[in-house]
Recover the amino acids of this structure.
């Protein structure tokens, strides 16, 4: 494929800027995609600012990709030019280990290859979706159902699947009480999906600013944590999904759980979090984590979203606005996902 225009960060502490990257030629099993929209995930910012301490620069972020197929490899039978497709957080895995065979490619025993900040099995660095075009193995390319616009679909490829997978794994549905902590990109999808699955949903947000949105997204209750003690909500939930990008008090959030409840942590703050063993022992509580979802489950999630009107709530920005959008995400001022208009990346 050759050189394509992208937006990335050249060095630790540098800002985001336009750059050229090399994309591989379309191999027999590859799909070439013209990127229409790419979501801004908080992980892009953690990485770009090297908050996790493992970013390889230069970095081109972006793992919530939606676009149109422009070419397919000679052995590809499943997709054709013109198809509407998505790409998420992973672009390769071994396909042979127990986890890959079980549909958990994200937990591949050989290590999956991430869409950016990683090295592909060809030894070349991976570059994310803040770019004009991308080439991805067909196994990791999803069909976007007709009922979803490409801009509303893009954030589903990370934010959507990251909350869908644990909600399904831990059985959110009629009769379960779900609390969603943090109403950002992941949080707003957790509310929509838990509500669509039939659960009773409560949002724990810092302030009342997003209260009307909580109700619109499907929550029964919105609790502003800056003026409510979590102890008032003790033992009221079966599943707590923590999407906060900063450190939270684990004891206080575990205490929200009734007997056999689970706190699923999907947020990835750089700081460590600690807890008292007694909080876990009491009520036979579980503390869990979860990373995105597997390939089959991601396609299933897209169909579920299409069937239940669960596209992401997006604000479309141009490539020139990425730095400002990042600042707004960090400030908690996004309703509820920025997506970059791919036509402005050129
Ligand atoms: P986001 O849009 O910034 O949402 C995070 C929300 O957390 C904010 O909207 C805010 O909600 C709340 N929040 C932010 N700072 C806070 C603070 N200091 N104290 C309390 N609450 C705070 O981020 P996102 O894209 O949804 O990602 C959230 C986290 O998940 C990030 O750490 C990201 O890296 C991680 N992530 C993990 C996976 C995975 O596979 N596990 C996948 C994607 C992302 P309120 O305004 O409502 O309080
Ligand atoms: Zn993400
Ligand atoms: Zn594997």
């Amino acid at each position: 494929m050759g050189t394509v225009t992208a937006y990335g960060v050249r060095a630790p502490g540098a800002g985001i800027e336009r750059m050229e990257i090399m994309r591989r030629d379309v191999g027999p099993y590859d799909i070439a995609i013209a990127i229409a929209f790419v979501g801004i995930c908080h992980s892009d910012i953690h990485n770009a600012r090297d908050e996790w301490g493992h970013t390889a620069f230069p970095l081109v972020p972006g793992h919530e990709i939606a676009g149109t197929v422009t070419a397919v490899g000679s052995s590809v039978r499943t997709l054709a030019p013109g198809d509407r497709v998505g790409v998420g957080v992973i672009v390769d895995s071994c396909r042979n280990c127990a986890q890959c065979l079980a549909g958990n490619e994200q937990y591949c025993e050989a290590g999956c290859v991430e869409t950016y900040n990683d090295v592909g099995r060809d030894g070349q660095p991976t570059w994310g979706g803040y770019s004009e075009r991308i080439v991805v193995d067909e196994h990791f390319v999803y069909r976007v159902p007709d009922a979803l616009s490409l801009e509303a679909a893009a954030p589903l490829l990370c934010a959507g699947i990251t909350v869908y997978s644990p909600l399904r794994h831990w059985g959110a549905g009629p009769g379960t009480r779900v609390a969603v902590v943090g109403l950002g990109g992941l949080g707003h999808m957790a509310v929509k999906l838990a509500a669509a699955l039939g659960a009773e949903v409560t949002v724990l947000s810092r302030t009342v600013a997003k209260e009307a949105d909580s109700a619109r997204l499907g929550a029964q209750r919105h609790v502003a944590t800056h003026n409510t003690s979590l102890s008032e909500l003790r033992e009221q939930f079966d599943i707590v999904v923590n999407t906060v990008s900063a450190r939270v008090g684990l004891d206080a959030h575990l205490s929200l759980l009734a007997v056999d409840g689970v706190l699923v942590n999907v947020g990835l703050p750089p700081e460590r979090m600690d807890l008292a063993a007694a909080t876990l022992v009491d009520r036979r509580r579980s503390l869990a984590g979860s990373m995105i979802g597997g390939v089959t489950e991601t396609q299933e999630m897209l169909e579920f979203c299409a069937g239940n009107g669960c596209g992401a709530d997006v604000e479309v920005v141009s490539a020139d606005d990425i730095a400002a959008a990042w600042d707004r995400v960090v400030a908690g001022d996004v309703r509820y996902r920025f997506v970059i208009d791919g036509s402005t990346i050129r």
About this structure: Residues 41-43, 46, 158-159, 162, 182-187, 205-206, 210, 243-246, 266-269, 290-292, 329, 332, 334 surround NAP (ligand 1) (CB under 6 Å). The radius of gyration is 20 Å. The longest helix spans residues 295-307.
